[in-house]
Design goal:
Blueprint lengths: L1 H4 L1 E6 L8 E5 L5 E11 L3 E7 L2 E6 L2 E4 L6 H7 L12 E6 L2 E8 L4 E5 L3 E15 L2 H9 L4 E3 L4 H19 L3 H4 L3 H11 L1 H5 L3 E12 L2 H39 L3 H28 L3 H12 L15 E3 L6 E3 L19 E2 L6 E2 L16
Parallel strand pairs: 1-3
Antiparallel strand pairs: 2-7, 2-11, 3-6, 4-5, 4-7, 8-10, 9-10, 10-12, 13-14, 15-16
Helix pairs in contact: 4-6, 8-9, 9-10
Length: 375
């Protein structure tokens, strides 16, 4: 009766129909391996013989006839000095060496990360990763133990703990503020993947792919950042509007000056050039808000030495251009309120209100057009 209770194995193989099994121990209860039995290890698998808890022979993908010559370590453990012919028992483990994809990781609770602006900030994070068995002997020895089947769910919680622990350290080492985190997901993921090499390696595993899906900030900080972004955008728009308003004001001044006979005459005699230069400065000032290089060029131009001509006198109560910066200032001013230039008033000159020509003192009628010259 004992003969019928034990069956002799002539084929040892693992037909994996699951997608989540890492290790499978071939069932040996009431069975023995006969001399010359065939071992089939399929692509993506490794078979390991274990004798009383000790790792013996390891087989990669292929077909093998089990004999003493290809079981040297097991032969030593069994004490087969001259080979074996009788059936024997041994634990045979098959390990799945494929890549296990799309594993989820995430923080069950918020974790604290350092931030230069807010001090310590609580964040939540999640993403995906992939891994595979890199060293089957280490994995079988340190992780599997005596379990007959080891599945993905038996280890993912441990791996998630590794990831979350390293996540906090990586954020701190990269010295990223909360405002910089969102634009540096790839950098954070690459650093995490490298750092996880050591703890995964101790289990005989390796990280093959790692991604960050999201790093969520506390609601109040997200609100603050949105408000700050909105203020920055509004400030940019307002600066642009202010530049345009300044230009419009200068255009308005020039338009009004053409309605004033005396001032219009001065512009016809060359002072219009100064106001034109002032308008150019106003346009450059508006553009400088958007271009730092143009600002530097304008500053260099303004730094050039400028001679100080004597400003001509203008009719009482009218405007006159500053001889230095060309800003329109009140006649009679001793200093320019824009640039601080001292104003030296020349001898009063008179102009014809009809044709704008300068006339000599004491004449009563314009020698060009005959218009009466006022006192």
């Amino acid at each position: 009766m004992g003969f019928f209770k034990k069956q002799l194995l002539d084929i040892i193989q693992w037909l994996d129909e699951s997608s989540n099994t890492l290790v499978y121990m071939f069932p040996m209860e009431d069975q023995e391996i006969q001399n010359g039995a065939q071992l089939t290890v399929r692509p993506g698998q490794v078979a390991i013989f274990v004798e009383q808890g000790q790792i013996a022979d390891v087989f990669g993908p292929g077909m093998y006839n089990l004999e003493t010559k290809n079981l040297p370590l097991l032969s030593d453990l069994k004490g087969w000095a001259y080979g074996f012919k009788s059936p024997f028992k041994s634990d045979v483990y098959f390990l799945n060496m494929k890549e296990f994809l799309n594993n989820k990781w995430g923080t069950n609770n918020p974790v604290w990360i350092p931030d230069s602006q807010f001090g310590q900030v609580q964040v939540r994070a999640h993403g995906n990763y992939a891994f595979k068995i890199e060293n089957p002997v280490v994995f079988l020895t340190n992780i599997v133990g005596t379990k007959s089947r080891y599945r993905l769910e038996d280890i993912t919680e441990q791996l998630r703990g590794f990831i979350v622990n390293q996540f906090t350290d990586i954020i701190g080492s990269l010295q990223l503020t909360v405002t910089q985190i969102a634009s540096n997901y790839n950098e954070i993921a690459a650093a995490l993947s490298d750092t996880l090499g050591e703890p995964f390696g101790k289990l005989g595993l390796s990280v093959t792919h790692f991604t960050i899906g999201n790093i969520g900030l506390p609601e109040e900080i997200e609100k603050h950042l949105k408000e700050l972004t909105g203020m920055n955008i509004l400030g940019s728009v307002q600066n642009d509007k202010l530049s345009k308003i300044q230009i419009l004001k200068q255009l308005e001044i020039m338009s009004k000056s053409t309605e004033n006979d005396g001032l219009n005459a001065m512009m016809q005699n060359g002072m219009g050039l100064g106001m034109g230069l002032h308008m150019g400065n106003a346009f450059a000032g508006g553009l400088n808000q958007m271009n730092a290089n143009q600002m530097a060029q304008a500053a260099a131009m303004n730094a050039q030495p400028v001679s100080t001509p004597v400003a001509p006198a203008t009719p009482a109560g009218e405007l006159m251009p500053c001889p230095n910066c060309q800003s329109m200032i009140k006649q009679g001013s001793k200093f320019c309120p824009e640039c601080g230039q001292k104003i030296e008033v020349a001898e009063k000159k008179r102009f014809c209100t009809g044709c704008g020509k300068q006339v000599e003192g004491g004449v009563k009628f314009c020698p060009e057009c005959g218009t009466k010259i006022g006192e």
